[in-house]
Specification:
This protein is mainly α and 429 residues long. The protein has one domain (4-428): Amino acid/polyamine transporter I, CATH 1.20.1740.10. Helix content is 77%, strand content 0%. The chain has 17 helices and no strands. It has helices at residues 4-15, 18-30, 34-61, 69-75, 78-110, 118-135, 138-166, 170-173, 183-201, 217-246, 249-252, 258-267, 271-303, 321-337, 341-369, 384-403, 405-428. Helix 15 (341-369) crosses helix 17. It is globular, with a radius of gyration of 21 Å. The model has no long low-confidence stretch (mean pLDDT 87).
Length: 429
């Protein structure tokens, strides 16, 4: 059985991955003003915190493994649950593959004797390795998550401390800051920046994927979710402040790996090695978390008749073995056929926020439909906190459609295609 420590570990492990390493450059390119840049990170973190406060009520009230799929299905409809679950499963398994590709590429760069197709081999090997760990049982999988998340947190804290010790003030010490965009251009820039930041924060729901395996879900789920979000917010703000203490915004705006530029300044000729090692450590933890989560989503959907029944069976170690096999296969296919991180981030952000919106709506629906149902934890500040989170989600989605129409259309088309997939899944179940 799992406790608060694992819940916090899986949230940190799933949230802190490629996003914080790649997003700063993209956000700074859109918002070159230091205060708007930091403001986007604060705004995205506040959204995640309000979301955690609200979704914790659902997690404690409906302790079923599988993530937000359960809430949408129970409160709204089976099809709404399917939309959330299916998109969650595919994107989580795909994210695992995408991160494994980065691990493969960075490992090959650290060891020049690894050439040719070694990046793909390493990526597949890492993916299969963590799958085998989890196949042995939830105890081994959760232990790996605790250890890798602890190492990841320590590595980031070392980088933050080094940045403050070796930096010379960077953007924070400058007297002339860029004004940044204004008017409609500012609105567009904030929305695009939030897409990157929200994707980077995504993962704060991690513990609810394992609700049935948590010792005391009514108490531990809210503690883990809110504690995990606060931990991630603190780490992200410290990372970004450290980044701005070392570099001016023009020095990292538009760069794929802004933290690599920081490492080069702080650690000199060892900077590239330090940065690539930090990235690998971060992504290994995230890959393990994605495996754990994707498997539980497919398990829950199969148990409810929305996928083949075999995916709902567990082995002696408590792992949904067939669901793990299918999730790993999707990750490996993603590795073999490839897909760049940048091409999926905005579409995934749209889906993430749409799923969050359905969860926030579910809080209101269940408060109205089942007011007497036992709620071990009630969302603090309801209905205001939940209402702000829901309104923020809707405004974000509308803003994304207006300011980033092409990627939003892709997301809406994928949403429209979910219905025939839903009907087919019902036939196969």
């Amino acid at each position: 059985m799992l406790g608060v420590g694992f819940g916090v570990a899986v949230i940190i492990g799933n949230s802190i991955g490629a996003g914080i390493l790649r997003s700063p450059g993209a956000i700074a390119e859109q918002l070159p003003n230091v205060w708007w840049y930091l403001g986007v990170w604060v705004l995205a973190g506040s959204y995640a915190l309000l979301g955690a406060i609200s979704v914790s009520e659902l997690g404690a009230m409906l302790p079923r493994s599988g993530g937000q799929y359960n809430f949408a299905r129970y409160a709204l409809s089976e099809y709404a649950g399917f939309i959330v679950g299916w998109s969650d499963w595919v994107s989580t398994a795909g994210s695992s593959g995408a991160m494994a590709l980065v691990v493969g590429g960075f490992t090959a760069a650290l060891f020049p004797f690894l050439t040719g197709s070694s990046e793909i081999v390493i990526a597949v090997g890492v993916t299969v390795f963590f799958a085998l760990l989890q196949w042995r049982g939830i105890v081994l999988g959760s232990t790996a998550q605790n250890i890798t998340s602890l190492i990841k947190t320590a590595a980031f804290l070392i980088l933050i401390v080094a940045a403050f010790l070796r930096g010379n003030g960077g953007e924070l010490a400058a007297t002339n800051h860029a004004a940044g965009p204004s008017g409609l251009l500012l609105f567009t820039a904030v929305i695009i920046g939030l897409q990157s930041a929200i994707y980077t924060y995504d993962g704060w729901t991690g513990v609810i994927y394992f609700s049935e395996e948590v010792i005391n879900p009514g108490r531990d789920i809210p503690r883990a979710m809110i504690g995990g979000v606060l931990s991630v917010i603190a780490i992200y703000l410290l990372v970004n402040i450290g980044l701005l203490f070392v570099l001016r915004i023009p020095e990292f705006a538009g760069k794929d790996f802004a933290m690599g530029a920081v490492a080069n300044v702080v650690f000199g000729r060892y900077g590239d090695t330090v940065f690539r090692s930090l990235t690998i450590i971060s992504l290994l933890s995230a890959i393990n978390a994605c495996h754990l989560m994707a498997t539980r989503v497919l398990f829950a959907m199969s148990r409810d008749g929305l996928f083949v029944g075999r995916a709902a069976t567990v082995n002696k170690g408590g792992t949904p073995a067939f669901a793990l096999l299918l999730s790993t296969a999707v990750a490996v296919l993603f590795i073999l056929f490839g897909q760049s991180f940048e091409k999926v981030i905005t579409v995934l952000a749209f889906f993430f926020v749409a799923a969050y919106a359905l969860s926030f709506l579910s809080v209101f629906v269940l408060r109205a439909k089942e007011p007497e149902k036992e709620r071990p934890y009630r969302a603090w500040g309801y209905p205001y906190t939940t209402g702000i989170a829901l309104a923020g989600s809707i405004l974000f989605l509308l803003g994304a459609i207006k300011s980033d129409t092409r990627n939003s259309i892709y997301a809406l088309l994928l949403l429209a295609l979910s219905y025939p997939v839903y009907r087919l899944a019902k036939m196969l179940a």
